[in-house]
């Protein structure tokens, strides 16, 4: 029997948020809210939906393999050259291309404990050594510890900012100190999937490093969160042409489908939808943070569209009891935070239902011995 390649042994498969359809089958429920995958509670832009409808007759045609039109739109949006944009099948697709392009057997990929597990999976596929440093006591990336871990074999460093699943950020000052210590031989990837939700003035402007000519900086963004088109799967990278060229060499023939490219362009044409999304999220973030405090549940200060809540050693049981009542949240065992739940910020009605259901579950479990 042919054995699979050795890198697969190191992979802990990624487990996404539980789908609504699966909960319907398991519990026979029809009224379900999903607050597990950081999806946009107000849906997708009407501009996007119209563009998709208009594109449907072209489904017999292959998409533009280079996503030229979308790259030009993104380049204009960010004020960079189109050759500095790489579009992928979600940010995940770009992460995979980065790892395939820059990791050899035994090279090192650095990131932090309790961060996006796709970094680990894509690095393991390339049989790289995965180095993970602890978070700070307040559950933020420890950039000093990350810089201390850099060796001559370090090739990729993933900094998720804001971090998934904690929602916390590293500041501009911390990033400046970190970048001064990182050698040119290591690529720093700033994964900014939740960028649009940030309102902290200390958040770093990582684009400055790309624009000043740093050849070892890559920024990741996505349309899945604030733009509300997670089902289409489209993300992108911003970096120097030199850094991105190898990604094109190892790409799939058509990495981004036609509808995704159309949806991305249309999303950029509707800034009002983005503003509404951000406003709804900001209101919900305040609402949930306040209600968690009333329940005595500690949370991490979030700059995203989700909140990390420490519910204690019964986190798995609380997750399961919420499921039975039609509320899907995300357990964080896979993020090495077994006492936490990651909860997407919904609209006001969804948030109210979450809090009411959580209160009932906690009251019921309080009467049961641990």
What would your notes on this structure say?
With 370 residues, the chain is of the alpha/beta class. Helices cover 39% and strands 14% of the residues. The protein has 13 helices and twelve strands. The strands form three sheets. The chain has a seven-stranded mixed sheet, sandwiched between helices. A three-stranded antiparallel sheet has the order 9-12-11, covered by helices on one side. Strands 1-10 form a two-stranded parallel sheet. The radius of gyration is 21 Å and the shape is globular. The termini are far apart. The mean pLDDT is 95.
Helix/strand layout:
Layout: H1 20-27, E1 33-34, H2 46-55, H3 68-78, E2 85-88, H4 90-102, E3 108-112, H5 118-125, E4 129-133, H6 143-148, E5 154-160, H7 172-181, E6 187-191, H8 207-211, E7 217-222, E8 235-239, H9 241-249, H10 258-268, H11 271-294, E9 306-310, H12 315-324, E10 327-328, E11 330-331, E12 340-344, H13 348-366
Parallel strand pairs: 1-10, 3-4, 3-5, 5-6, 6-7
Antiparallel strand pairs: 2-8, 7-8, 9-12, 11-12
